Amino acid sequence: MTVWFITGASRGFGLEIAREALSRGDSVVATARNPQTVLDAIPGGGDRLLAVQLDVAVPAQITDAVDAAIARFGRIDALVNNAGRGLVGAVEETSDAEARAVFDVNVFGLLAVTNAVLPQMRSQRSGLIVNLSSVGGFVAWPGWGVYAATKFAVEALSEAMTHELAPLGITSVAIEPGPFRTNFLDGTSLSVAEARIDDYADTAGAAREWAVDSNYGQNGDPLMAAKIIVDLASYAELPERIQLGANAVNDVAGKLERTARDQEAWRAISLSADYATS
Fold this sequence. Notes:
Layout: E1 3-6, H1 12-23, E2 27-32, H2 35-41, E3 49-53, H3 59-73, E4 78-81, E5 86-88, H4 96-124, E6 127-132, H5 145-165, E7 170-177, E8 190-192, H6 204-214, H7 222-231, E9 241-244, H8 246-265, H9 267-271
Parallel strand pairs: 1-2, 1-4, 2-3, 4-6, 5-8, 6-7, 7-9
Helix pairs in contact: 1-7, 3-4, 4-5
């Protein structure tokens, strides 16, 4: 039996992961800013479900949630860093306050929760950390630059932890979903930069329109994503990152191809930066 600690578990991926884990007989600490929403969504969770208040931007709530998890179940086997927010708007259109708000949740919140859970995992010499990134953590598009920057940061943290924690028996993996049919594009999850600059109408403006037009029409199935993520606890080894959905697979493959072409075209110039060898 695996004990899961899931942030942002009241809806979207977090809720489906909680449901999937419970259906397999696992125990779940499902955290949300309003834990009652979790209990309403999973009324039959029973003793294996612990719903806890947690705003990842509030340090005291992080400590209390982790303590409650240990008090109830004695350990945390798998941490799913799922809580996050979106932001659409050109980089120049995004205010300092708008950028900091999304970094506070997507990066600093994830970091704080992870650092609160890791002492327990290190003492166990076992554990799984699943960091919900995005295909936007590997590929950035017009209109999503600041959001992608938060997910690029998540990728860096996750990749470093993969190698820092492996000798301690702990696995870290970044999950890169493409567009999935969750509430991510709703106003409750996706912020829109208040400023609009006409020069970006065909780029960031198109991204804003796509967000409205695509809401609840995305190709990704969150139930399948939840099954894949819960399955990760059964693997002996995991890669640094896993894409979910054809959009993510194709976008990452396309960037790798572009990078390889650029590297080859600029190889001589890149290598010329070193001191000359005798």
